[in-house]
Design a protein that fits this description.
globular; 10 helices; alpha/beta
Length: 307
């Protein structure tokens, strides 16, 4: 089994589409890597594989090796900076183009997921994050059955459940929490995504979708609430264009000043305005994002919960 040397497997789940599971998975992976952990990301959203684009490795090709596939590297480990290796595997690497549709029935999806779990050669790794499609259908059942059957006791650390604040979202995500109960998957915690919008001009955060729905849901199910994640347009620009985040004067988050002048003075800025969309630089640029301290706290809580 290709998962044998992985210490901890974490699923990213949600019963609702469009809540930002892939962006949450991306930032969890970057944050864990920046904390020195070796990380793999497995994208099992077969009809909407977005992880290659999130990591800017869409043009990469999967390498066949004796015994299976080699995951695509995002960046190598850098012990001097305390950064762990990050790699990714997705059906997106096997498609001819970004716009190609995957028109598969349930049995073929199930077979593909089982192949991903058995034939990808991850090697020794601290964390494997599995980005899943919305719902509780064939993919989730196949994933849960295969993991619980093929992994060691305790290797599947649990699931991070993602929602947005609105009641229409939490109503569907509650079904995912019930799915975890029925399949004996521990819930590491709930993340409330899109909890506010960070204005790119004044850095004020406005609760455009309301707030608190995810925390109430976590309380109802007696699981840990990991935190709220606002929408930050600078993170979107980082992913789409490779531009390092830049914030107006006075942007202070969790006691850290993200103002452009301060970042440049600390050597973390991009004074020339140069845009370089390169996967190997993504983690370093992410250090300058307002969401980085938010996810640093979230990943610390996950690591503590995993033990």
């Amino acid at each position: 089994m290709s998962l044998a040397k992985i210490k901890h497997i974490v699923l990213v789940l949600s019963g609702k589409g469009g809540v930002g599971k892939s962006s949450i998975t991306t930032q969890l992976a970057l944050s864990l890597s920046l904390s020195g952990h070796s990380v793999g990301v497995l994208d099992v959203d077969l009809t909407g594989p977005s992880m290659p684009r999130m990591f800017n490795i869409e043009d990469a090709k999967v390498t066949q090796a004796p015994g299976g596939w080699l995951p695509v590297p995002v960046h190598a480990a850098d012990p001097e900076k305390g950064v762990g290796e990050l790699r990714c595997m997705s059906l997106g690497f096997l498609l001819r183009g970004r716009g190609d549709a995957v028109v598969w029935r349930g049995p073929k999806k199930t077979a593909m997921i089982r192949q991903f779990l058995s034939d990808v050669l991850w090697g020794e790794m601290d964390y494997l994050l599995i980005d899943t499609p919305p719902g509780t259908s064939d993919e989730h059942i196949s994933l849960a059955e295969t993991l619980l059957k093929e992994t060691r006791p305790g290797q599947v650390a649990g699931a991070v459940v993602v929602t947005t604040p609105q009641a229409v979202a939490t109503a569907d995500v509650r079904k995912e929490l019930n799915f975890c109960v029925k399949t004996s998957i521990a819930v590491l915690g709930v993340i409330e995504n899109m909890a506010g919008f960070v204005c790119p001009h004044c850095a004020e955060c406005t609760d455009i979708f309301g707030k608190g729905g995810g925390q109430v849901m976590a309380s109802d199910f007696k699981v840990q609430f990991l935190g709220r994640v606002p929408i930050d347009p600078q993170f979107v620009m980082l992913i789409e264009t490779g531009r390092k985040p830049e914030y107006p004067q006075g942007t202070v988050i969790n006691g850290i000043d993200f103002s452009q002048g301060v970042q440049n003075a600390n050597g973390n800025g991009n004074p020339t305005g140069e845009v370089t969309k390169e996967a190997s630089l993504l983690a370093e640029k992410y250090r300058g994002c307002s969401l980085e301290p938010v996810f640093r706290k979230i990943t610390q809580d996950i690591v503590t919960a995993v033990g």
